[in-house]
Amino acid sequence: MTLHDEYRALYQSYLEYCNAHDFDSMASFYAPGITVNGSPMDPGAVTAQFEPLISAFPDWHWDVAHLVTDDENIVVHFSVTGTHRGAFAGIEATGRRVDVSEFTLYHLEDGKFAAVWDLLDMDSLIRQIS
Fold it and tell me: Coiled-coil stretches, from where to where (predicted)?
C-alpha cells in the first residue's frame, strides 16, 4: 500500500465518523496542537465547532467530489447536504434542503491532522435557508 493509499484510507475512516456525527471518534484524528484556519485549538474544541451545525442540520452529510494527496497533505472538495431543522445563524428552521461546496486541506504529522484549512460556501448556505 502506498502512502497515498494510506492517506485515502485514513481519510475514509475519518469521513465515516464525520457523517455519523461521532465527535469523540473524529477528535481521535487530530494532533494535540492542531490549528484550524491558523488558530491553535485542542481536539475537543475542533469537534465542538460542528455541534451547532449538526443541531441545525441533523442530516448533515459530506460527500467527496475530489480527494488529492501528497506526501504531507490531504485536500478534499466536498458536496455537503443537509436539511434545515433547527436555528442556524439566527435563522429559524425552514425545512429547506441545502447543497453547498466545501474545500478542506489537512496537513498530516505522524498520521494525525496537525493543521486544517477549511472553506465552506457559507453565503450559498445562508441564501438557501433565507
Answer: none
26-55: b (≥16 Cβ within 10 Å) or e = bbebbbeebbbeeeebebeebbeeeeebee
CATH top-level class of 3-129: alpha beta
If 0-12 CB within 10 Å is exposed, 13-18 middle and 19+ buried, where does residue 112 land?
Answer: middle
Predicted confidence at residue 1, as pLDDT, reads: 86
Closest CA to 77 of 4, 15, 10, 2: 15
**Tens digit of each residue's pLDDT (9 = 90 or more) over 46-84:** 999 999 999 999 999 999 999 999 999 999 999 999 999
